[in-house]
Each structure stands twice: as structure tokens, then as C-alpha cells.
Amino acid sequence: MKPGPVLSHLGWPLELGPAQDVAPDGAWRSATDQDGIAWLVLDCPDSGTNTVSELVLTGLAERLDALEGATPKAVVIRSAKKSGFAAGADIKEFEDLGREGAEERLRMGHAILDRLAALPCPTLAVVHGAALGGGLEIALACDARIAIDGASFGFPEVRLGLHPGLGGTFRLTQLIDPTEAMQMMLTGSSAHTRKAKKLGLADVVTEERHVRNAVRALADDPPSRSSGLMSSAFRFEQARRLAARRMRSETEKKAPKEHYPAPHALIDLWEEHGADPKAMQQAEIASFADLLRTDTAKNLIRVFFLQQRLKSKARGDSGISHVHVIGAGAMGGDIAAWAALKGARVTLGDVALEPLGKAMKRAEEICKGAHLDSLGTRDALDRLMPDPNGYGVTSADLIIEAAPEKPDLKAKLYDGLKGRMRDGAILATNTSSLRLSGLRDGVPDAARFAGLHFFNPVPKMQLVEVVSHDGTAPDVRDRLLAFCGDIGKLPVPVADYPGFLVNRALTPYLLEAMLLLDEGVEKETIDRAAVRFGMPMGPIALADEVGLDICLDVAESLQRDLDEPIPEVPERARTLVADGHTGEKSGQGFYDWSNGRPDPGDGDVPDGLTDRLILPMLNACVECLRRDVVGDPDDVDGAMIFATGFPPFRGGPMHYARARGVGEVTAALRTLEEQHGPRFRPDAGWSRLA
């Protein structure tokens, strides 16, 4: 019998059982090996990633027809994609379905997975990479799961305003500790290999080369299931009621029911039906169909497609394999570590040895946070080389300058690069406040100079602004966009403008909050207004977290270069910086950070306070659109969500403005202009948005 196709995961061919061509219109290949074990291999056509579409489910149903008629010794389900098992359901298929259509589609999917679960032979899911959403639900319908080292399991549906809809709610809570299961579904968090084994989600953890033996062992001796103590306890309604009450309290703090109904609907499901899987299955279908029609789900699904849109800008070959980073401070060190983690060869330069040492230590923490195993961490650190003498400059494809925001210092660094950079190399600055037009005269080649504006903290923030000045060569911009894709970031192309897009929009928001402080409004009240609107944290806390010194640099740069009025920097902020109280990094800013991130608490929010904070941000976004700083409103929405945490359930600032009504927003701005001055004057671009 011919061997399967050679696909690799971590350098080892994927074990796919006997070879079998995929039908031209299908997503599955299937065959039975000499041990009598049937292999079903998922390989969605025309895609590098499997998604659980109607095609996948109906194709599975056809394979089940054959398996039910001739029962094999065991059935193995796995993916042929190097990217992983499956990335979830194809949400596009639900977009235009009404409630009845959604329920019908879900019932069809449930019936197919019920048939898989009912096969009389052992069923085994072999998972490499990620098994998410609908992909995990297929794996849960199997009797056992074999995890290849590095695998992860999760239900991210809550991020789409939904909860699992193909049986995940009852199968996961029946399989593992129900409180752990609920935590996974309520937060959208993933269980990586070791945790999955500990939870009982993965039965076996192995390496790719041992898959065949693991399959044979489980086929001969499938795991027996018995309800654990916690599962047994939660069969009683009173126990579920007490646990659900705690879950609601914790969930409300992070995902208020008013804005995020899905996790609360999931708690209701489990509390009411947790002891009856069949009843929970029917309730899951109805609840999922109801959630699909909510504004939150529609907006969060919109955000998902905004994310895909930004990813699409990163297509192509960057031609960048060696990156040299100048500056081993917090930003430069993290940029270097992240690029190395994602496969680039990186040299990291700095005039001092101490920051290089700190950067290397931090790199280990970043690898740990990314769930790299010891081998992956070793490889990433091997790709990251401290380079105090800057030898990497001569061979780098891309040089990223991440020095302090001082034009004279940057000019000196650029002068030192002249005659040393190789032909075709790109120089990119990570500046957040300086115009490229003011820096380009000192660079070796202005056509090959651009901006790569990362956001802090680099490992967590997805967005990168790719900044072009009017002399940047088009191929340079395209290569930098592709490089962002290489390192798993979302790029948004922007023009050279004061603050670019994100800081141009965010700075008035932060300064207005500081002015409110000077007017006597309590900082907790200001932050509470923003958090209740949906921001991840308030503007005063955010200014402290970013660093008040950095906020001052950006604000002064914008005041110097912008034609439009923005709030003056309050003296209180200047005084704090002068005294060394720069925020979280110094332990003291507007807040005392010695006890962790501040909590704005409960309390009233004065009428009009939220608009005074949020509407200047919207106004600045419209200005950036009018001046062609950014391509279109969707790019604005994606950038502001992924860089600032603008409430995803609102769909982005421009989507929020249109949903609220452009006329209403501009009227509110005019009222604020009458009360507080010209900084609130509606931008001329609102008429185009309307």
C-alpha cells in the first residue's frame, strides 16, 4: 500500500494513513489500512486551513454511510493541513440565514456528529496545531483524542458573540470538570497540550512519529469514561445554581450582559440543562440561533472579517529573513524577540550591554507566553543574537530603528548606517510621534525608508502601522506589509501624518481625560465612563500604562504639526513627568500602581462625559479619512479595534458613528464646541462619511 503524502509538522511527515485522493468537490479523503483501521482525513479544497462548512459536514455524513455499513476496527479523524486540525465553523454560511434557517443548519450538523459519536467502533481524533470551535466539536464527538505535542483546543465563539453550537456545550461539560469546561467556553481561552491532558480533554500526548502506534494502542484498548466527582456533583440543580451565580458575577465584570449576551446565555444553558445532555443539545441550538441575530454577534462577526481583511494586506513574499533591530529597550527588545519567535534571524544592537541582557531574558518570557516548548524556545533564542557592535547591519534585509523619540539621536544613528547597509535593504523606524518627512533627509536611501509602528506590549498587540512618506518606494511598502504577515501581525498601511492614524485619534481622547481631571472630575469617574462604553480600560489608567512621558512626546508633536486644534497638555501631567512619576513603569503616575492595575469601581457617570471622551476620537478618525491618511472606514475600524481596544461589540468607531447616526454625532460635536471650544468642531469629512 502506498505511503501517504509527505506533509510535515515540526519537521516530521504527517501520518495520514493510506493515500487516497480527495474527490474534486469534497473535503475528505478516506481509506482503511492493513490493521482494519479507517482513516478520515480532512483537507478542505483551495485553503491552507480547514473550516467546518456544510461541505465538510455533508462529506462526513457520506463517509459515515460507508462506515455504518461495514464497521472497521477503529476510525481515525485528522487533518492534512500543516496549519492544524480545524479553525472552526465557516461563519459566512450563517450570515444570511434567518433564525429558522440557522436552526435547520445546526440540527443537520448535530445529527451528523451524533452519528459519529454513535459508531460502534472506537473513534479517535488526532490533533496537531489548533482544534477550535466546530473543529473541536468534531474531535469531542470521537471517543478519544490524541494530541501531537504543541496542539491546542478551544472554543473562541464568545469572541463572535456566540457560544458553541455543534454540541460543544454539552459534550465538553460531560467530558471534563464542568467548571473548567465553562471557563474555557466563557473566556474563549485555549487549553494547550499539557493542560489539555491534565483536564482530560486529550487522552494521549505524543509526537508525530509515534502517531501510528498511539492509534493502534487506543484501537485495541479505548479509554473508559467515568464521571468525575465534580461532574457527578453538578448533576444536582442546587450545585449548578450556586456555581452559575459565581460565574455570572465574574463574567459581568469582564463581559457585561448588556454588551456581551453570549456568555450569560451559556451560563443559563448549563444551569438549566446541565444534568440532561439531550435537553442541553436542543437548548444550545435555539440559543445559538437567537444569538446570531443580536447586534453584538453581527458586530463581532464584522470584526472577525475586518481582521481577515487586514491579514489579506500581508500577502506576498517579503524577502526578509534577517532583521537587525537598533535599540534593546522595551520596544526594540520585544520586536526582536517576537520576530525571532516567528522564524526570522535577528540581530539586536544597543550601545549598552545591560539592555541587551534584559532583552534576552525578556525573550525567554515571550517564548513561554507563546506556549513554545523547550525545543521551540531553544530554536527561537538561537535565532536571536545580541549584537553590541552592530555587525548585523551589513547583512540585514530589514533594519528596524527603535531608539528614543529624539530626532538628533535618530539622525546620528542613520548617519552611521550610510555605506554599511546592503543593496535593497529597508530601513524602518518604530517612531510613534515623529514625522517621517522630518527624518528622511538623514537616511541612507529615502526611497527605502518607511515606518513600522508597533504597539506596546508587542507580543499581545496585533496591529502594526506601516507608514509611507511620499518618497517611499511601492515595493518597500509591499514588502513591509508582507513582513507583518510573516511575524503574525495585522498591518494597516497609513500615510505620513502627525500621529499617523492611531495616535492621531487616541491623543485627543487621553488629553481630554486629563483636562477633565483639571476641572475636578475624579479620575475613577472618567475611567468608569470609558469602561462602561466598552473600552478595555479608562484613559487615565491607559495614559499611565503607556507612560506619561511618551504621551507628552506624542501630544507635543501633534500640537506642533497639526493644523487642527487639540487639547493643551495639562500642567499636572508635565509636573508628574518632571518628578519622575511616569506611570506604571515608575510605579506612580495619576494612579498608584503598587497594587496592580487600578479599578474604576462602581458609581454614577455624569451625562455627556462619555461623548466628551469618545467623540474627539471619532472626529480625528474622520479627519484621517478626509486627508487620505488611511484607505477607508473599514481600515480605520480594524486599526482602532486591534490597536486601542475600541469596543469590538460596537464594530469600530466609524461603524459606531454610522449606527448612531452621523447627524446625531455631528450635532453632539457642535454642542460640545459651543461649550468647550473649537477642538470639538466637526471635521469637514463627516459629510463624506454620511
UniProtKB/TrEMBL annotation:
Record keywords, A-Z: Fatty acid metabolism, Isomerase, Lipid degradation, Lipid metabolism, Lyase, Multifunctional enzyme, NAD, Oxidoreductase
Annotated EC: 4.2.1.17
GO MF annotation list: enoyl-CoA hydratase activity; isomerase activity; long-chain (3S)-3-hydroxyacyl-CoA dehydrogenase (NAD+) activity; NAD+ binding
Catalytic activity: a (3S)-3-hydroxyacyl-CoA + NAD(+) = a 3-oxoacyl-CoA + NADH + H(+)
Gene3D superfamilies, sorted: 2-enoyl-CoA Hydratase, Chain A, domain 1, N-(1-d-carboxylethyl)-l-norvaline Dehydrogenase, domain 2, NAD(P)-binding Rossmann-like Domain
Ribosomal protein listed as a keyword: no
Residue ranges of every copy of the 3-hydroxyacyl-CoA dehydrogenase NAD binding domain listed in the record: 322-496
Positions of the UniProt region annotated as Disordered: 579-608
Biological pathway: Lipid metabolism; fatty acid beta-oxidation
GO biological process terms on file: fatty acid beta-oxidation
Top-rank taxon: Bacteria
InterPro entries on file: 3-OHacyl-CoA_DH_CS, 3-OHacyl-CoA_DH_NAD-bd, 3HC_DH_C, 6-PGluconate_DH-like_C_sf, 6PGD_dom2, ClpP/crotonase-like_dom_sf, Enoyl-CoA_hyd/isom_CS, Enoyl-CoA_hydra/iso
PANTHER family documented for this protein: TRIFUNCTIONAL ENZYME SUBUNIT ALPHA, TRIFUNCTIONAL ENZYME SUBUNIT ALPHA, MITOCHONDRIAL
Entry's family note: In the central section; belongs to the 3-hydroxyacyl-CoA dehydrogenase family. Belongs to the enoyl-CoA hydratase/isomerase family.
Name of the protein this chain belongs to: enoyl-CoA hydratase
Source organism (scientific name): Wenxinia marina DSM 24838
